Amino acid sequence: QENADPQKTAFLLRKQWTLYSVTPLYRFSSANLKEYARLLGAFIAAEKQKGLAVEVGVDLDIKVTFSSLPDLRGSDQDQAAMLVQLSSRSSVPQKNSEEKLMWSGWFCCVSGDDLSENVPEDFTCLPLFLANGAESYVAIVGSWFQKTFDCRFCRLAISPLNLTWMAAMWTGCKVEKNASATELVFSVPCLPQPLDISYAIHPEDAKALWDTVQKTPGEITQEEVDLFMDCLYSHFHRHFKIHLSATKLVKVSTAIASAHCDGIIKFLQSKYLIGVLMLLTELAISQIQ
Amino acid sequence: HLATSLPLPSERDHLRPRIDLIAFMIDIKSKYSLKNVEASLAHVDASFFLGKVCFLVTGVGRVNYCSVETNAIWKLGEVYCSPVLYCELELEGIRVATAQRLLRMLQICSGQIPGVSALSFGSLMRNSADE
């Protein structure tokens, strides 16, 4: 598994991506990207005509580009990632009219053999979709894909249980000095007013704790994740007399990436991009199946 | 009788009626509730595990709120030889149906149903769950 070229994937970092799972695409071909861009552009223009304009009162042409991100995959078995970008350009021709990137969405599949091995020939598996930009564009782009490839998009939420796995896995990654703190955010249930508890741990302390828990490098078990979290919970309880285990873990932030239970992710280091995508692909696949 | 944990306070032992069924409630959204149940199980006399204990798992309606691994709960049922019931308390229909099930179990455990003992019913439930 090669690491993706950091220069090509730098634009994916430090942006907030909303996650969706996508069922396999019927009769999709990566050779037709230009044609798809043209068709989607026409679809968006038609929707605008119908009065479903996203930006009111602004005369904008929307340019659609489809491109391939061949490095973003786990193995050759995976379909290469595909990026869709919507840029706006003033429809009044101007000398220096710049194209402004309005919305990006990309499909990918990292180590998705569980899914791709079980679908018929005409289907392409790109189960994970990440979107950045106005949600109304997700709706438009999504409905074009659904019409064209008979697939279905569904928001991908991340359960507290899966967030604890991310916390453990990402804490275990080696990071340089001055890495940002590991932060866990908990939402306290059953209160008249919402209360969030933020628990920040020095990244070296967190890694030291994880290193005492993990027995086999490269392997993580549920017991190890539970033990890691239990240590953090009891430490907190000792100081504040609050049982974090009775609250809901809603967000995990480390130097590698941050994830929110509503299905929002931020990649912070290109070195670990593929690893995080592999985990997210797994979550997307289990939502589909 | 409702309690947040075991053991029950000893001061009221002499006033307490016979206990026929213990239903341990685990909220799938709270790891703490699982730990609490595990700690309380240690205070239960072994004879109760012959059909007079069950685990009631609540909050199962929303998969994405899950803080407890379902495998851990299944293992608990296996280790303590007791059935695991799943329900969603927020939905009235399921709440009522679960209450009726528990009531039925209680009737059997208290010996009110002739021909069916707590132990035989317990093993019947576990065998059908395995299928």
What does this protein structure show overall?
The complex is a heterodimer of chains A (289) and B (131). With 289 residues, chain A is α+β, with helices and mostly antiparallel strands. Chain A has two domains: 146 residues; 102 residues, no CATH class. In chain A, 34% of the residues lie in helices and 26% in strands. In chain A, a hairpin with a 6-residue loop joins strand 9 and strand 10. Chain A is globular and about 65 Å long. The two termini of chain A are 25 Å apart. Chain B is an alpha/beta fold and 131 residues long. Chain B has one domain: Rossmann fold, CATH 3.40.50. Chain B is built from four helices and three strands. Chain B has a three-stranded parallel sheet with strand order 1-2-3. The model of chain B has no long low-confidence stretch (mean pLDDT 87). Classes of the chains: A alpha+beta (289), B alpha/beta (131). Chains A and B meet through helix 5 and helix 7 of A and helix 1 of B.
Low-confidence stretches of chain B: none
Largest sheet of chain A, if any? Answer: 11 strands, antiparallel
State the helix count of chain B.
4
Q: DSSP strand (E) fraction of chain A?
A: 25-35%
Number of domains of chain B: 1
Major β-sheet annotation of chain B = 3 strands, parallel
Report the order of strands and helices of chain A: HEEHEEEHEEHEHEEHHEEEH
CATH class of chain B: Alpha Beta
Q: From the alpha-carbon coordinates, what is the Rg of chain A to the nearest angstrom?
A: 21 Å
Which helices and strands, and how do they pair?
The complex is a heterodimer of chains A (about 290) and B (about 130).
Chain A: H1 6-9, E1 17-22, E2 25-26, H2 33-49, E3 60-69, E4 81-90, E5 100-108, H3 113-116, E6 123-124, E7 128-132, H4 135-149, E8 153-155, H5 160-171, E9 182-188, E10 195-201, H6 203-213, H7 222-240, E11 248-253, E12 257-260, E13 264-267, H8 273-288
Antiparallel strand pairs in A: 1-7, 1-8, 1-13, 2-6, 3-4, 4-5, 5-7, 9-10, 9-11, 11-12, 12-13
Chain B: E1 22-27, H1 31-41, E2 53-58, H2 70-79, E3 84-86, H3 92-109, H4 118-130
Parallel strand pairs in B: 1-2, 2-3
Keywords (chain B): Centromere, Chromosome, Nucleus
Organism (chain B): Casuarius casuarius (Southern cassowary)
Subcellular location (chain B): Chromosome, Centromere; Nucleus
